[in-house]
Amino acid sequence: VLTDPIFMCGATLANYFSLPFVFFMRGFPCNLHYEAPQCPSPLSYTPRLFTFNSDRMTFFQRVENALVALLELVYCNSFYEDMIKFSSEVLQRDVSLLDLLNSASIWLLRFDFVFEYVRPVMPNMVFIGGINCAQRK
């Protein structure tokens, strides 16, 4: 099943029918596209979205980065709360957001790794940068 992780319907459907599924995405809120496959993403090095920090942060920028990461957890849990309840009803067991995301077979990341911060990725994560790029007129 080729699915978008923003709407967890594809992941729920694939888990229900015990099918492998592939995430195809540009980004995922709350840095879950690195947390779910268990990629190292230390807060002291990797800047969070919307902080506009570089990978060389001062102490106060690192503190800000950690606080934003904590706020993202609250935001993501509330954003996906209804979907987690729906998935739990369909799968007839308690599931968490990471339970649904961890079972992805392949993550197709529409990132261009040249523009992203250097970090290790898992073997099932494939960068396919350059897709959906129109030639500028």
Automatic annotation (TrEMBL):
One molecular function GO term is: UDP-glycosyltransferase activity
Question: What keywords is this UniProt entry annotated with?
Answer: Glycosyltransferase, Membrane, Transferase, Transmembrane, Transmembrane helix
Say where the protein is mainly found.
membrane
State the annotated membrane topology for this chain: Single-pass membrane protein
Taxonomic superkingdom = Eukaryota
- Protein localization: Membrane
Identify its protein family: Belongs to the UDP-glycosyltransferase family.
| Protein's name according to its UniProt entry | UDP-glucuronosyltransferase 1-3
Write down the species: Aptenodytes forsteri (Emperor penguin)
